[in-house]
Structure formats: C-alpha cells, structure tokens
Write a structure and sequence with these properties.
The complex is a heterodimer. By secondary structure, chain A is mostly helical. Chain A has three helices and no strands.
Chain lengths: ~110, ~180
C-alpha cells in the first residue's frame, strides 16, 4: 500500500473541490463554470480512488475495487454532463446572445 | 523531514509532485482571465490526477482519465470555446466576480472537509487485503465487477450516454427558422 497517509489524499481532494466551488461561484462565463464543475467531479473521484485503495468494506476481494468502478462511472457521467452542458451554452448563445449565466434571466421571478 | 521513513521517500516525493501539479492546474483553471488558457490549465490538472490514480494502483483509471478526460472532454470543451470565439468574433474572457465571498465560502468548505478528514477514525486494511498484492490483476477484476456485480449500473450508463448524445445534438442543432 502507498505509505502516504489517507488524510493527505483527502486534503488534496478537499482543496481541489473548494477551487472548483470557487470557480463555479465567481466565474462570469458559462464555459468557465463548467470547468469548475469538472474540478469538483475530479475531487470526488480522487476521494473514491483513495478510499478504495486504503479501506475496503468487509475486506473481501470483490469489494476492494468498488471505488475504482465508481470512478469509471463518474467519468462516463461527466462526459455526458459536459456534452449536454456545452450544447445548452451554445443554444442559449444562439437564442439570447449571452454567455454570462447572470444575463440569461428570462425565467427569473 | 520528520516522521517519514527513508525507504518511503520516493512515494512521498511522487505524491507531492503530482498533487502539486494537480492543485496548480486547478488554481489556473479558476483564475485564468481567458477561457482558452483555463482549458489548458484544466488539462494539466487532469493529467496530474491521472498521476495520482497511478500512485493509488488504479491502472485502468489512469488510462481512462487520459483517454476520456484529458482526451475527449478537454477537446470537446476547447472545440466549444473555439466555436464560441468564432461566433462572437472576440476572445472569450471570464472575469471573477464576488471574489471575497467566493474565497470565504470555498475556504469554509475546504476547512470543513479537512477537519472531517482529520477527526474521523478510519478502519485500516489488514496486510493480507492490501490491493497492491494483486495490483497486476486490477484491470481483470474491474472487468469482472462491471460484468457481474455492477452489470445493471453499467448498462444504465450506456442508456444515459445515448440520451446525452441525442440530447446534445437536438440542443445544438440549428432550427430551420434560425
């Protein structure tokens, strides 16, 4: 097993997650906000891979790699999310001519 | 360097290098003023994460991270940025707004997670169950898991991918009236 303590991986993932959160909250551009979401998804993936490496529920052979399977599924879902998100960004730009999500406020009450 | 045995120094250095690369890429992604360089910073971050997976004995994850994330997703985002730059006729800029509030909220979340990580008592693997013992079979075992225990999620993921494919095309298509 890797001698680096589990907490070090959790720290890296926490910092990466908060960077992504910062990006989503402060960016004024839809594509840049999507980049922040990618950072958060990857932070969650690091956590899953680290937990799968250091801990395994029950210690059975067939539960040790559960975390890595979850990571693969999140990667597939992230690909879907980016494709649909970018299509929505292009669509909104074509319909409204805006790229800042704050300006696309037609449905805001 | 206190508390680190000399024989483990390589693992620590490798971890610090890849983690530093990842965090540098992440920082560049959220503070770069133009969107296109932000995409390139994201690419650096994703490659660093592939290195982190390698240190965690996730060989298939390294391959998938580089193929899907660094290959497909980054290229897709860069394509969209170039399309938008062509459509708008100018370079896409992404200024940050509400900087102080963003720093406070993100720092709060980071501190919260770190405190949680430090105060939780994690159970330790016994020596016989350590994944490195059969690191070479990782890919085989994941394939078996996907075809047995996780067969239903695996198939549902393919339906989701199909739905996203069709949905993205419908959304991005040019309507006859436009």
């Amino acid at each position: 097993m890797n001698p680096v303590p589990l907490q070090a991986w959790l720290f890296v993932s926490a910092i990466l997650f908060s960077m992504g959160l910062f990006g989503v909250m402060t960016r004024r551009h839809a594509v840049a906000m999507l980049l922040g979401i990618e950072l958060m998804l990857n932070a969650a993936n690091i956590n899953l891979a680290a937990f799968s490496h250091y801990l395994s529920p029950g210690g059975h052979l067939n539960t040790i790699l559960d975390g890595q399977v979850f990571v693969l599924m999140i990667i597939a879902l992230a690909a879907c999310e980016v494709a649909v998100g970018l299509a929505i960004v292009l669509r909104i730009y074509r319909m409204r001519g805006v790229l800042n999500p704050d300006d696309a406020s037609t449905m805001k009450w | 360097m206190y508390g680190i045995p000399a024989e483990h120094i390589v693992e620590y250095v490798a971890f610090l290098c890849t983690a530093g690369l990842t965090l540098l890429g992440g920082l560049g992604t959220v503070v770069a003023r133009r969107v296109f360089p932000a995409c390139l910073w994201l690419l650096l971050c994703l490659l660093g994460i592939a290195g982190l997976y390698g240190l965690l004995a996730g060989h298939l994850l390294v391959a998938m991270q580089i193929l899907i994330y660094a290959g497909a997703i980054t290229v897709l985002i860069i394509f969209a940025v170039m399309l938008l730059q062509r459509a708008t006729g100018r370079i896409l800029m992404a200024e940050n707004q509400h900087l102080i509030g963003g720093v406070i909220a993100a720092g709060f979340v980071a501190v919260l997670i770190m405190v949680g990580a430090l105060t939780t008592q994690f159970p330790q693997l016994s020596d016989i169950d350590q994944p490195n013992g059969y690191a070479g079979q990782n890919v085989q075992l994941i394939g078996q898991l996907l075809m047995t225990k996780y067969l239903l999620p695996f198939e549902i993921i393919s339906v989701v991918l199909l739905a996203a494919l069709v949905g993205a095309m419908v959304l991005a298509r040019r309507e006859p009236g436009e």
